[in-house]
Structure formats: C-alpha cells, structure tokens
C-alpha cells in the first residue's frame, strides 16, 4: 500500500525523522511517502501555528492524496484532519487520535507528555473531541521546544522521562502517550525505562492505517465528509480549488 505521511510543519529534518519512525513499523509492502507543506511554520506551538499548518495539510492532500491508500497527519494537534478527510476517500489518521485509542487498549487510564506547556490546552481539546475524557488522566508539558526534537530527542530523553514518571504517579496512569511526532524515536527507550506502555502516535497511526486499508475501508463521503464543493479559490490558494 501507499501511505502518505504529512508532517504539518516545514522542518525537513523532522520530516525525515518521522518518516524513519513510520518505516520502522510499516509492513514490508507499505511504501511511505513523507512530505511537508510548501508554506507555514517550522514548528507548531500554538493555535496560530496550527491554523496555518492545517492549510498546509490540505495543500499536501490536494497535491499527493490521489495516489495514496491512506494518509497519516504527523502532528499531535491533528491539524487539518477533517479537511483532509473531505479531500480524499483514503483513510486519514491523526497521530493524537491514534495514540489515544492505542493507549485505551492497554490501560484504564493514560497520561500525555508533550512539548510546550502552552499546547496542553490543544491536547485537552482533542481529548474532549475524541471522547477520551474518562481515560486521559493528565496532560503534562515539558517546555521542550519542538525543534529541539529534530535530532530525535536524544538530548531531551531524561527530561521527558522525569515528566512521565511524575505523570504516572500524580495521575495514577498505566500508560504514557508521547505528545509530539518528534518524540517517536524515544518510544522504546522510554518504555524500557518506565516499565509501562509508551505510545508513539506515528507508529500507532501507521498500523491503524494499514489495518483499515487491509479491511477495505474508506472514508465516508456521506454528510459532512462529502467531497468539497467546486468553487474558485483566490490568491495563493488558487491551485487548491476544486
């Protein structure tokens, strides 16, 4: 199958790292095409960044979605998720939604450890949107800048581990969800150190995407996920119209 992996920020280094994490868990027959928007923020650390990044996700689905069997949006805010589902019939998986589901299979409660504290509210909104209020017991910021994870986060692992240990104790959780795609490479290390399941949303999203494709399931085109209405788009968005 062909998997379109979209990093919604414009860091080529981070895109390469996320792609490596996806390929590490993908089936041998899965081809991962990793891409990022041609415009937007180098890192997504707030509502404004996310709004611009969502348009970038829509751009990439418009450009590359036709040849994809599934799409993964590799940012923990799941920016542009609904727009992407409108734009393609292929299954579209956001890494936050995937991670929450995976964690709920493994523990009665989980905690999220993410990057900037200011983005915790974005994760909280997603927890409520996806209906995980009773399973997510806490969301904890480390104030690690997203771009500090471009190298896979090796220099940040101790800080993330400390936050995770505090979360497990304070929240009485049984699992940790990593709240940034840039943390993907740290998943196995943290799981071994903490002794609990640590869920990387990139890996979870890839496996869910492969499963949906294997089941022959597609995104519904009924109701609000119907294809976008034909209309003219102006300015820089002109090529994105239908």
From TrEMBL:
<comment type="similarity">
    <text>Belongs to the HyuE racemase family.</text>
</comment>
<protein>
    <recommendedName>
        <fullName>Hydantoin racemase</fullName>
        <ecNumber>5.1.99.5</ecNumber>
    </recommendedName>
</protein>
<dbReference type="InterPro" id="IPR015942">
    <property type="entry name" value="Asp/Glu/hydantoin_racemase"/>
</dbReference>
<dbReference type="GO" id="GO:0036348">
    <property type="term" value="F:hydantoin racemase activity"/>
</dbReference>
<dbReference type="GO" id="GO:0047661">
    <property type="term" value="F:amino-acid racemase activity"/>
</dbReference>
<dbReference type="InterPro" id="IPR052186">
    <property type="entry name" value="Hydantoin_racemase-like"/>
</dbReference>
<keyword id="KW-0413">Isomerase</keyword>
<dbReference type="InterPro" id="IPR053714">
    <property type="entry name" value="Iso_Racemase_Enz_sf"/>
</dbReference>
<dbReference type="Pfam" id="PF01177">
    <property type="entry name" value="Asp_Glu_race"/>
</dbReference>
